[in-house]
């Protein structure tokens, strides 16, 4: 006598098999949502797998650990920012210097601000534990350092920059954008108007353009 399949098994039979890329994307999306909502310590791999609709062993088959999926979820966007920005700089020769700096400031600010809950948590862990920099922090540093990889010469008169330490200027301006994105809600005292994100990006861009690139030589 042939048994009739249960509704649940029939549903599983009809469900199309997900590709490995689809499974990875679901896991990363679930990890981002949960880490942002609950923080690193408050999120387990079991919860991530459940949110993604896969078994926990599937998560470990794609990522070696919770730290591994965390890094994949939050470092890849910073790595992409660096590569895309440098490629765009080199390919679009018609773009003005102001447009280039504006795009860099806006991209880095928006990405850091969107992920600032996680970034704050990572920084706190690093300070408390004294461990080497997590991969996400390394990629933030590389995003800032990408300014070294572009060809400034066609757009900048280097004569007025004789008094500028380019390495220090890149570190200071990148740190300004990253720091404001993470700490803007801590930098305005109670009762004082808090500038909007667009205004902050405009002012930071102007500081970079007119406070460094158009600065007269050192006294």
Fold topology:
Layout: H1 7-14, H2 20-38, H3 45-52, H4 56-62, H5 66-91, H6 97-114, H7 116-129, H8 135-145, H9 166-183, H10 197-213
Structure report:
The protein has 219 residues and is mostly helical. The protein has two domains: 18-63, Homeodomain-like (Arc Repressor Mutant, subunit A); 72-213. Helix content is 67%, strand content 0%. It has ten helices and no strands. The protein has helices at 7-14, 20-38, 45-52, 56-62, 66-91, 97-114, 116-129, 135-145, 166-183, 197-213. The longest helix is centred in the middle third of the chain and has 26 residues, at 66-91. The radius of gyration is 23 Å and the shape is globular.
Short description:
The protein is an all-alpha fold and 219 residues long. 67% of the residues lie in helices and 0% in strands.
* Content-based structural category: mainly alpha
Indicate the radius of gyration in whole angstroms.
23 Å
In the residues, how many domains can be counted?
Answer: 2
Strand content: under 5%
Helical residues, percent: 55-70%
Task: List the defining traits of the structure above.
globular, Arc Repressor Mutant, subunit A, mainly alpha
């Amino acid at each position: 006598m042939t048994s009739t399949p249960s509704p649940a098994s029939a549903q599983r039979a009809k469900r199309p098999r997900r590709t490995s890329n689809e499974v990875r994307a679901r896991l990363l999306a679930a990890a981002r949502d949960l880490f942002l909502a609950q923080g690193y310590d408050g999120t387990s791999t079991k919860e991530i797998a459940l949110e993604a609709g896969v078994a926990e062993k599937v998560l470990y088959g794609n990522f070696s650990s919770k730290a591994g999926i965390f890094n994949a979820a939050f470092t890849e966007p910073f790595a992409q920012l660096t590569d895309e920005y440098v490629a765009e700089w080199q390919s679009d020769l018609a773009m003005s210097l102001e447009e280039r700096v504006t795009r860099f400031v806006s991209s880095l600010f928006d990405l850091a601000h969107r992920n600032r809950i996680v970034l704050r948590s990572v920084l706190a862990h690093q300070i408390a534990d004294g461990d080497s920099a997590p991969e996400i922090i390394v990629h933030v540093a590389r995003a800032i350092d990408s300014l070294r990889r572009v060809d400034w010469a066609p757009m900048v008169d280097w004569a007025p920059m004789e008094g500028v330490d380019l390495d220090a200027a890149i570190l200071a301006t990148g740190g300004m954008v990253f720091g404001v994105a993470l700490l803007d809600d801590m930098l305005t005292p109670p009762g004082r108007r808090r500038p909007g994100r667009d205004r902050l990006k405009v002012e930071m861009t102007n500081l970079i353009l007119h406070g460094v690139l158009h600065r007269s030589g050192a006294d």
